[in-house]
Amino acid sequence: MVKQDRRTIQTKAQITDALIQLIHEKGFNNLNVTDLTRAAGIGRGTFYIHYLDKFDLLNKIEAQLMDEIQQVLNNVIPEELSVHSNADSEVPSELLIKTLDYFYQNSKLLSALLSPDGDPYLIDKIKEMFRNLIKESFHASSDDIEFNPNIPRDYIMEIILDRLMSIVVYWMSKEDLESPEEIAKIIKLTQHVSPNELVHIKK
Q1: In the chain, beta strands by DSSP E
Q2: φ and ψ at residue 94, rounded to 5 degrees
Q3: Dihedral pair phi/psi, residue 150, rounded to 5°
Q4: From 3, 50, 133, 151, which residue has the greatest number of CB atoms within 10 Å?
């Protein structure tokens, strides 16, 4: 039974690696099961033991990815929101670094899926997950959080959401990735720098 489980894990890893390779080579819309089995070095019958078709493969891979991302975000978002009560802290937390390390360890898969030739809907799924978790954190911490009275709360949420999303997604799109520690520092710095402080136009 253990051998079978290991074989299944190995086969699925081969198929995932083949998917990543083929998305970069020809795009998800243009690949088929034959392409996947050839690239993975397995038979079509083996593929169909685990997946109905390429869409079932994509859905199952993304479902696992989303579940794992949600688990790490459940930990990091409440802490990242709490930073606003400590404006002097610019040191990335160990928790934030560990969370970014998850993205780093899965960067090949995320880079392929988030690319123009991957799944155009994945970014919206991840963004919605971020949004829901931020809403829950706002609600749970409503007594401890003071919102800027000049900006509606839904816009505040979108600003925080876009800051987190844009940095992580852009990071995943790069060929030479910075370390999780470097990205954590960038995220922390953006919490202390207003947009008009990012660029200074010389007069």
Answers
A1: none
A2: -65, -35
A3: -90, -10
A4: 133
Q: What is the pLDDT of residue 130?
A: 78
Tokens of 164: 């987190």
* Torsion angle (degrees, nearest 10) of CA 184, 101, 137, 151: 30
pLDDT, residue 180, reads 93
Distance CA 103, CA 43 (A): 31
Length of the chain: 203
Q: pTM value?
A: 0.78
Q: Which residues of the chain have pLDDT under 50?
A: 1-2, 84-85, 87
Cβ-contact 40, 15 below 8 angstroms: yes
Tokens for 22, please give them. 């083929």
Answer for the pair 134, 157: CB distance below 8 angstroms, yes or no.
yes
Give the pair of three-digit tokens for residue 165. 């999303």
- What are residue 192's phi and psi, to 5 degrees? -120, 5
Integer Cα distance of 40 and 29 in angstroms: 18
Q: Which residues have C-beta within 8 Å of that of residue 178, sequence separation ≥ 6?
A: 171, 186
Radius of gyration from C-alpha coordinates of the chain: 20
Short-list 35, 33, 144, 125, CA closest to 85: 144
Quote the pLDDT of residue 144. Answer: 67
